[in-house]
# Entry
Amino acid sequence: MKLWKNIKMTDFKIKFPSTFFATLKKSSEDTTNHEYMVENEFEVLKLDDYISKSYQKEIHASMCLKGGDACFEKNDKIYIIEFKNCYLTNQLGYEVLEKMYASSIVVMDKLDISVSEFRSKANFITVYNYNKNSSDESEYAQHAGMAKIRNHVAKKGSKKIEELDKVAFGLTKLEKNIYHKVSAISVENFQQYLKNENII
# Structure
């Protein structure tokens, strides 16, 4: 088994087929509305595409596994990003949890790293939008109001971006158990998060 310190983006290129690499922008595409959530051009593994189109065949699985949209290594950390061009309702939260589990299993398997190594370095970030997608008007109004407060706090720089939604819609239950950090970040704050993490 490899030591974690030796795993870099080049290992991703060796372990995963080249056809599943694209820009972060491309991986953020909302195919339903034909729009991109971010404009960043650095290279990532389109993890969900790889899992659904290749990995399941490799392990002879008949079930449909779902993973995060983008995965990459930077500064000795692994980042798995799920893009949701909508607000995270409870139902969507469960879908993201499913992707978190599958993503961790596949990445650990393909990179041949242990659970403890993965847990010490891997971060899962859900990037969401405040587009209305709820039939409950009052619920959406409450969320939209909180968005303004969070964005104001973020712009003042008085709190880390990944701590703005610390509850992260129930997703933090996997923090420290499987992932090092679990964050839910609005698309408005995502660029600043990438800068804070020295990714861009």
